[in-house]
Specification:
Helices cover 4% and strands 38% of the residues. With 421 residues, it is mainly β. It has three helices and 29 strands. Among the domains are: 89 residues, no CATH class; 141 residues, no CATH class. It is globular.
Amino acid sequence: MTGAIDGIARADRTPPVCPPPSSAEVPIRQLTRGPGFHWFSYYDKLQFDPSGRYLLDMCVDFEGRQPRPDDVVRLGMIDTEDGDRYVDLEATTTAWCWQQGCMLQWLPGSDCEVLWNDRDDDRYVTRIMNVKTGARRTIPMPIYTVAPDGRYAYTADFRRINDMRPGYGYAGPTDPHAEQLAPEESGIWRVDLKTGRSELICSIARAAAVPIPADDPYYPQADMPRSKHYFNHLLVNTDGTRIEFLHRWRSYGSSRSWKTRMFTVAPDGTDLRTVVDAGMTSHFIWRDPHHILAWSRHKSRGSGFYLFDERDATARRIETSHMPSDGHCNYLRGSAADWIVNDTYPRGKDRLRELYLYHMPTGRRVDIGKFHAAAGYDGYWRVDLHPRVSPCGTKIVIDSCHNGQGRQQFMLDVAGIVGSG
């Protein structure tokens, strides 16, 4: 992809002159309260049911430390049309982490089934539950991301993730390939949510064998054979035809930060494509079947948000100072699909996490909230806002710890902003 970002046509760029950022008074309401600490976690999961009425929730009775194998999360729903009434699903899990939870989410297209990861003795599994009838079934593999048709899910190896980066794996079974740098038996699996069958579609060894460009200034090819590799952050595109994932590695036994590149692959494991060959890619979201908005570092253009075309690895940088730092980006939906919601990590002496909207066609930024991150909420048990979006695109839900009640869920109504475009 050398020169791809610099070589795009000017007409394909976001307008270079952007209006100044503005602020808006946005209605915000607290959805959950103690006893207990409530959150949903990752920004790319379906928290809302198709109607937008019910929101999924996780709850624990402690904070401030890493989960242990016997720590239990309780699962529930919030009925936003009945006084934010909490609905106990009478379901629990011991397969979870602070940053990504247990992958709790609605089954795409269903108004009654939810799914999440759990543990049966020494293996991770998926539970699928009908919230109306209580009927449950178990799939003998965990899930990470689900295809839009709800038939297939894709998963990485949570045992290896926990070994390489504990804040994103699960406390429990250990990685059987921990001493291998790039195992053939570990990678990405496709999981049939009807039959329970699974197949390994891309091994870690396969990705590690893809060479790095010789002129890359950050990632020397010589690092690859002596580094330990893993996969993380899988996400299916909007029509189920491509799966994105991050390939990460670091020198074996080193505590230094990992190196990252982005791949996509077909659902059957064919057609592996390098989207970002050495960009230290962080958070991202699919815009459509072929384009990925991602925070990345490019060797000639520096760090920023780029819109990548995964078919040929071309990209354009978001030409604005209004999105200057990494965050959990998400596209709004429905008539508001031209808008992005994004957050920041804590800034300044007041440790404020900013939440804002960004209008792609005009470059307009609207700040909609600043939320204090209380002291002690750092590292693996920090509380990122992780903005999630309603099906209609007018409601945003966040996790936050700004009001002294520990982590809780809050909803912001942005209809007054995005309705006018």
